[in-house]
């Protein structure tokens, strides 16, 4: 009843061919390379801009590895070597001149991102769409002082960007909805199931929801109600099992809405509303812990364990993508056509019975 696509109950569709839509990526770290692989696989030619080209001399090999993964997993049917011919890495922003979309993916710093976006604006045409891959910074901040603020959007990817279906496209205060809808159309070519935010808000959708969950998880552990292991175990076996199939509103539809209203009334006043960074995470960070990246986090790892967890996470990501594709967001709205049983001759039935085939 409350759902609609763009305020009118419909979603405007843009026809766009990635092959005729040259793209640029600013930043060739882990996320930038993963985004580049996704764009190449979709058919874009890509210019990658990095501030230290010599230090990223192996980026082509990294891309080839990701593209080969995609071929192995059935996400790509093209030759990675041919796709790599459409990629060019440089330190020079002027190489972005012909790009129709540029995606910035550098450190999560408003000042650094804003500086990068200004460098892009100086060289691209006024029609070029500029996206910032930010997890939480309001897009309106990047539009302030821009020469063409309406073409600046948030394009929030999830790692690994070449695999995940997630994407949020965020309009700042001055963003053009038409540009945002064009990126939605491109995102479908990228293999995404994009969400569009028509108003700017810090953290967007997924991080506002996730960080509310993180806050309560820290509260439960720091207050002695449960261990880190217990919290992780409960989440993966409850929320973790259904959330790929349904978001919170669909899940409440499926499991009985009135009960949730009753629980909210009693529970919400007791949930944590802390505004400080939890001591538990501060201790980990202050001790230099970065998780599997350096084998120290909320859990400790041997180098072998860390590598194994990272490999398993990537394997799981491919598998959960394949499962999710069997259950698209509108699957329950589609009318299923009754399957007609295949007609079998008496002879073929006898043959199957004798051979044990079905």
3D structure, described in words:
This protein has an eight-stranded mixed sheet, sandwiched between helices. The chain has two domains: 180 residues, 3-Layer(aba) Sandwich (Rossmann fold); 121 residues, N-(1-d-carboxylethyl)-l-norvaline Dehydrogenase, domain 2, CATH 1.10.1040. With 358 residues, the chain is an alpha/beta fold. Helix content is 42%, strand content 9%.
Distance between the termini: 45 Å
Which descriptor suits the 3D outline? globular
**What is the CATH architecture assignment of the largest domain?**
3-Layer(aba) Sandwich
Strand content: 5-15%
Mean pLDDT across every amino acid position: 89
CATH superfamily descriptor of the largest domain: NAD(P)-binding Rossmann-like Domain
Global structural class: alpha/beta
Helix content: 40-55%
Topology, please?
Blueprint: E1 23-26, H1 30-42, E2 46-49, H2 59-72, H3 80-84, E3 87-90, E4 101-104, H4 110-121, E5 129-132, H5 140-143, E6 152-157, E7 167-171, H6 177-189, E8 195-197, H7 206-222, H8 228-237, H9 239-242, H10 248-255, H11 257-267, H12 279-286, H13 303-325, H14 346-355
Parallel strand pairs: 1-2, 1-4, 2-3, 4-5, 5-6, 7-8
Antiparallel strand pairs: 6-7
Which short descriptors sum up this protein?
358 residues; alpha/beta; Rossmann fold; N-(1-d-carboxylethyl)-l-norvaline Dehydrogenase, domain 2; 2 domains; globular; disordered N terminus
Can you describe this structure in just a few lines?
This protein is α/β, with parallel strands linked by helices and 358 residues long.
